[in-house]
Write a structure and sequence with these properties.
Strand order of the largest sheet: 2-1-3-4-5
Largest sheet: 5 strands, parallel
Structural class: alpha/beta
Order of helices and strands: EHEHEHEEHHHHH
CATH superfamily of the largest domain: Response regulator
């Protein structure tokens, strides 16, 4: 596809990783690259649609950068792309997707495309996908016994179920392909 569909900010303190991600995305999107949290915040403006953010960086962590993004009131979609195994601390983080490294070019492109689409949804549907991403990240990395003992995970699951019930009324926003994709996903 020749059309540039979104502006993506890739943030990773490893220049090789950042360049690989950028090259994989440039075929379909306009890409900015930052190698530190400070550079990311300097590069960030209202034109950025999606941020791919590493959690573990030396000057500012991705968690701190995420807090600054939200404190500025920016509405860009944020995917944490990291080698940090998800733990219960992610429940309170205001990101939209969590990718555990290593990730493929196809995963990056698919994630960016999904996030661009999600940005057009109403707030409740965006919240649902964010909660679903956190739940899926924890389920993929934590043993069931640990999840069952966690009050935080129980609260997250209750929130997920409440949002899912509320969204039954909002499904009319989705086109046929998105509704089909959602129905087949394990998130709904």
């Amino acid at each position: 596809m020749d059309e540039q569909r979104g502006i993506v900010l890739v943030v990773d303190d490893d220049p090789r990783v950042a360049r690989v991600y950028a090259e994989q995305l440039r075929r379909q999107h306009t890409v900015r690259v930052a190698y530190s949290g400070a550079d990311a915040l300097e590069s960030l403006d209202t034109d950025v649609d999606v941020v791919l953010l590493d959690r573990r960086m030396p000057d500012q962590t991705g968690d701190e950068v995420l807090e600054q993004i939200r404190a500025r009131g920016l509405t860009c979609q944020v995917a944490m792309v990291t080698a940090v195994e998800p733990d219960f601390d992610i429940i309170e983080m205001d990101f939209d997707e969590y990718l555990y490294k290593p990730v493929t070019g196809d995963q990056l492109l698919s994630t960016v495309d999904h996030l661009l689409r999600r940005a057009t949804y109403d707030t409740a549907l965006q919240e649902f996908f964010s909660v679903a991403a956190k739940r899926a990240a924890l389920e993929s990395e934590k043993p069931l016994s640990v999840l069952q003992e966690s009050d935080e995970f129980a609260t997250l699951t209750a929130r997920f179920e409440r949002l899912r019930e509320e969204l039954d009324e909002s499904l009319h926003q989705l086109d046929d392909e998105e509704a089909f994709e959602l129905a087949l996903s394990d998130q709904f």
